[in-house]
Amino acid sequence: MARNLDITSLRSFVAVADSGGVTKAAGYLHLTQSAVSMQLKRLEESLDVSLLDRSNRSVSLTAQGEQLLSYARRMLALNDEVYTRLTAKEYEGEIVLGVPHDIIYPYIPPILRAFAADFPRVKIRMVSAPTTRLREMFGRGECDVILTTEEHPGPGGEALVTLPLVWIGAAGGSAWKQRPLPVAFCKNCIFRSGVLKRLDDAEFDWDMVVDSDLDNAVEAVVSADLAIHAAIKGVYPRQTGPIAHDGVLPDPGQSRIVLYLQADDDPILTTLRDMIRQAYLSEWSPQDTIQLTA
User: Fold this and answer.
1) How do beta strands 229-232 and 158-170 pair?
2) Over the stretch 56-67, which tens digit does the pLDDT of each residue have?
């Protein structure tokens, strides 16, 4: 007699595998930890195999779990495709998505591609602007969904991942050795005040060498070795890179990627939200340094 795998249990299994733990998976699925654990147990019992190695503090997959993960992803994708194709035909309109330029890659392009496939009649208009401007636009209702880079989420914001900031400069440059320390931040940079405060707290003399609202002005002076800048680790403008200062410079701090959604009862917006959540559930760990175009 044919036996059937439970799609809900498979979805919990994939969420745990992607997030590295039951707690994060439960948050993403809007379930309790006990409910997720019960679904995993039911799945293991139905297959009569152990899928997760629970011997360590972090959850990892067994050999059988790794084998199932590939099948589970395909089954969920097909399930979701069938459901969307048969139920989402009435959805149409426009969604405005706001994202700062330095976190567009690597996740936003595949999210846009997947969303367009599921909702071909819904147009996504993407706005790329600094976090402060995106928050203002969101407050005026001009954006439906925004991602921001902030140390602390604002009202209604959901922190997806915490990222370290690093000092960056021109490749092979020496600007970081100068005193006062030449730094460059555009006026709208969300990192600016926090990083400068860290320099002040460390009694580090600094000099702001750019006065601009535009990121490309900052990138120009940094790539010319006239100043240094703080950026999210792994995402650097062209002709720049992390500075190997061996602790000479103060720690610039960290930032969070925060998600804001206008209406959590809109099925289209919640689908986009879930796609974004899924993309950021796994740890931010780009395999290669991401170079931003100037």
Assistant:
1) antiparallel
2) 777 789 999 999
Is 194 in contact with 254 (CB distance < 8 Å)? no
When the candidates are 3.40.190.290, 3.40.630.10, 3.40.50.150, 3.10.290.10, the CATH number that belongs to 89-285 is 3.40.190.290
Query: Do residues 6 and 68 make contact, with C-beta atoms less than 8 angstroms apart?
Result: no
Spell out a b/e string for 237-265, using b for 16 or more CB atoms within 10 Å of the CB, else e: bebbbebeeeeebbebeebbbbbbbbeee
Q: What is the dihedral of CA 239, 245, 246, 251, to 10 degrees?
A: -100
User: What is the pLDDT averaged over residues 227-255?
Assistant: 92
DSSP code at position 51: -
Three-state secondary-structure class, residue 243:
coil
Cα dihedral 288, 14, 119, 100 sign? negative
- Give the rounded percent of residues in the chain with a pLDDT score beyond 90: 58
pTM over 0.90, yes/no:
no
Closest alpha carbon to 244 in 168, 184, 191 = 168
